[in-house]
Description:
Its cofactor is heme. This protein is mostly helical.
Amino acid sequence: MSSELCSLLLPTILCSATLSFHAFFALLFVAAISSYWLVPGGLAWALSSNKNTISGPSGFPILGLVFSFTGALTHRVLSKLANGLKAKSLMSFSVGVIRFIISSNPDTAKEILNSSAFADCPVKKSVYELLLHRTMGFAPFGEYWRNLRRISATHLFAPRRIAATGEFRLNIGLNMVNQIKGLMESNNAVEVREILHFGSLNNVMKTVFRKSYDFGKSGDANDFEVEELVKKGYELLGMLLLDSKKILQFSLYRLIFYNSEIRMKLLSTFIKFSM
Length: 275
C-alpha cells in the first residue's frame, strides 16, 4: 500500500510496512461485517434472499435483539423500538440468524395471519416432541386443518356447549376478582399476569377435559403437577428455534437444545402416560 493511500485510510502510526497490510485487511473485514450488521432488521434479514426492506433495528452484531428477550417486559421494549423507528405497522429484527417481524396495527396483523406464508411456516421440532404437530394450532393449512376447524366449531365452540360452561366461566371471573382484592389487601401489589394465566388455563381444562383445578395453591399435588407440566410446555414451545438448520449455530446453542430435547422426551412420555 502506498504511503499516500495509507495516510488517507489509516492513522499514521499504522502506516509502517509491517502493520499496514494487516490493518488494511482488518478494515476490510470490519467493513464487510458492518455491511451485514447495519442492514435494517439486522444480520438475519441481511442473509435473507428476500430483498424487500422492512424498517427495523440492527441490534448487536451477530446477536441482534437477543437481550430484549431476557427481561419480563419484552413487549414494552419492542414497542418502544417500533415507536422510535415509526414502524408500528410492521417492524423487522433479528435474533441471531432468525428473522422476526412484529406489528402493532390490527389490520397488518390480520393480513399476516391470513397470509399463506404464515400458514405454511415450518413447525418447530419441539412441537413434534410434545405431540402437538397434529393440533389445530400447529397443523399445516389444508384439508386436515379445515376438518379440525369444522369439528371444533361444531362441537367445542357450539352455542349450546358455550352456554353450558357459562356458569363456570362466571365463577372463574369472580375468583380472579377475589384474588386481586386479597392480594391488594395483603401485599398492596398484584401480579396480574399470573392470575390471568391460571384463570385462562382453568377455563381451557374445564372446557376440554371437564376438570377444574385450583392452580397456584399447594393444597392438591395433582393440581401442582398439571401446573408444572403446562409451565414446562410453555418454556419448550417458546424456545428460539434452536433446532432450525441455519448457519452460525454455536456450540452453546447445541448444548442448550440437547438439554431441551431430553426434557421434551420426558414430558412427552408423561403426556402419553397421563392419557
